[in-house]
Design a protein that fits this description.
Order of helices and strands: HEEHHHHEHH
Largest sheet: 3 strands, antiparallel
Number of strands: 3
Structural class: mainly alpha
Distance between the termini: 33 Å
Strand order of the largest sheet: 2-1-3
Number of helices: 7
Helix content: 55-70%
Radius of gyration: 19 Å
Length: about 180
């Protein structure tokens, strides 16, 4: 028996599913708690997007929404879908389109950048009041790490080879 190494799709599938679960928890748990002059407010990712939009910064709000919520969800779900098809040798519908979606959404998946921006914000906000980390911040960090690991384990070349073997992608269609 020889080690399988990176020829398996299960790690990418497991990491992407765990990332989707962590993303759900990151979006439903408060990331930070602000305490300014006795007024306490919990901050969620969606709260920040809504506040940017309300203040007239709609392009930035749209960018934060896409980069911190939509693109990670699209990327992780497309990686899970393609990895499931490859690891279980399933002929799932729209596999080529979903594979392309993973390629298109990967550069927009900026949850690690969002994490760094959150840390910088906390440093600045501590000058005007109390700021404490909540469980949502831990889930954002988990999403960032799981996404980075999933990107390392999801090899497009191996996916294309498996899809060709399943007859879902011809050699001329592989980019």
């Amino acid at each position: 028996m020889s080690p399988i190494g990176k020829k398996t799709f299960q790690p990418a599938l497991a990491l992407s599913l765990a990332g989707l679960f962590a993303l759900l928890l990151a979006n439903t748990s408060p990331v930070l708690t602000f305490d300014v002059a006795g007024r306490v407010q919990h901050g969620f990712i969606a709260t920040g997007v809504g506040e940017l939009f309300r203040q007239g910064y709609w392009p930035i709000a749209a960018l934060v929404l896409v980069a911190s919520m939509l693109a990670p969800a699209l990327y992780l779900s497309s990686v899970a879908y393609v990895s499931a098809a490859c690891s279980m040798k399933l002929r799932l519908p729209w596999i080529r389109g979903v594979m392309r979606l993973s390629e298109l959404s990967e550069p927009w998946n900026l949850i690690p950048v969002y994490s760094i921006a959150t840390v910088v914000s906390v440093v600045k906000l501590r000058m005007i009041g109390g700021v404490s980390w909540n469980d949502g911040a831990r889930w954002v960090l988990a999403v960032a790490l799981l996404t980075l690991f999933a990107q390392q384990m999801f090899e497009r070349r191996l996916v294309e080879h498996r899809l060709e073997a399943l007859g879902l992608l011809s050699h001329t269609e592989a980019p």
